[in-house]
Amino acid sequence: MTSLISWVGVDSRGPASFYLASDSRISWARDSYWDMGRKLFTCRQSPDLFGYCGDVLFPSLLLSQVSQRIDLGFKISLAATMRHRAFLSVAEASHESYPAAQRRAFTILHSARDSSGMSSVFHLWRTSWDPLSGWSDEKIGLPTESVLVLAVGSGESTVASYDDAWRRSEVGRTSRAVFTAFCDSLRSGTDSFSGGAPQLVGLYRKGVGESFGIIYQDARYLSGVPAGPDEAALMELEWRNELFERCDVLSMKHMSGAQRHARPKHL
């Protein structure tokens, strides 16, 4: 399983960003796991994000195919609902030919944006399959403040507990509170099926999906995989630490001029 979350970032003018975060652990049993599994996907030509939990093999293969199709065939002007329908069509067709004996339950979160700038509108869908009830596809309503929208996977209750504590703090209802609460839940080890470094992808009011480098426990990671300083310096992306601060990729310290985020003393 995994810990997979989504949240919206809201500023004084309304929704300004949307994020998915996950852990990096792929488990075969409680004591058999690998902490470098990619669980989040972005599209380079369209404002779409995907993440999965549950079964690993089918969703990870599917989302690599879907993100490629979107990049090769979709335009940024295509409505988010149409892009989601296209994703769902590919998912159902692909799953239909998947061996029945290998089918296991999974959930995929799809975040997308319509338009750009101050006209932008963010969306979230939760698409699931399980052997008993088959397919389900739900459009998730988004809040009007910067709070956790959805937590799914084996770590759901652990994430919710840490998020509740951060939400009640003096820095609650901010993106940094949601992300740091998520990192705290992973570091706690409470859910043995969630672990490794956090992964993070996001959408802003403009542009396509963003993948973020993560500074976690004094090391650099991208999609759960460690990155050395020389390699990381070549990557054109934002780096964030556990407090959601923008960081310098080489020093791994708070970037000069970026906003500082302090941890409340009781957390």
SSE layout and pairings?
Elements: E1 4-11, E2 14-22, E3 26-29, E4 32-34, E5 40-42, E6 48-54, H1 57-73, H2 80-96, E7 106-114, E8 121-130, E9 134-139, E10 148-152, H3 156-167, H4 175-188, E11 199-204, E12 210-211, E13 213-215, E14 220-222, E15 225-226, H5 229-233, E16 239-241
Parallel strand pairs: 13-16
Antiparallel strand pairs: 1-2, 1-10, 2-11, 3-4, 5-6, 6-7, 7-8, 8-9, 11-12, 13-14, 14-15
Helix pairs in contact: 1-2, 3-4
Explain the overall architecture.
With about 270 residues, the chain is α+β, with helices and mostly antiparallel strands. The chain is built from five helices and 16 strands. The chain has helices spanning about 55-75, 80-95, 155-165, 175-190, 230-235; strands at about 5-10, 15-20, 25-30, 30-35, 40, 50-55, 105-115, 120-130, 135-140, 150, 200-205, 210, 215, 220, 225, 240. The strands form four sheets. It has a five-stranded antiparallel sheet, covered by helices on one side. A five-stranded antiparallel sheet has the order 5-6-7-8-9, covered by helices on one side. Strands 15-14-13-16 form a four-stranded mixed sheet, with no helix packed on it. A hairpin with a 5-residue loop joins strand 5 and strand 6 (about 50-55). Helix 3 (about 155-165) crosses helix 4.
